[in-house]
Amino acid sequence: MIEYIKLFWEGAPGEEPPVILYEVDTENERLVLRSIDIFADGSTRNIPDLYDGAIEITPIPTVEELNAHVWGEEFHACVIEKAEFEAIWQNHTYNEELKGTGEIG
Q1: Residue 22: how many CB atoms within 10 A of its CB?
Q2: In this protein, which residues make up the domain named DUF6881 (predicted)?
Q3: 72-82 pLDDT, tens per residue?
Q4: Which H helix or E strand runs over 87?
Q5: Strands 2-9, 31-38: parallel, antiparallel or unpaired by DSSP?
Q6: For tag attachment on the chain, is the N or C end more exposed, with fewer CB atoms within 10 Å?
């Protein structure tokens, strides 16, 4: 089963994406299939292999873990629909809020 997560990083440094979308394989240790970095100016970067060149492969926490601040107070997440992920992946555009409340979207 695939889960789509929108992660908001409050106070992300200027060169880092304040929003990251993940396509997570919940049946394979919650590893990421694809991700999209969304920058403060609305530009996006598609990442077809998050683990390319990685020394350590790390699973993505659940939305509940992220919103419980297990990974830090600055992270908030919500589940999104596949269609939203695919539209941003295909169009390379993001016109939504860059800050989240952690509410299910």
Answers
A1: 22
A2: 3-92
A3: 899 999 999 99
A4: helix 82-91
A5: unpaired
A6: N
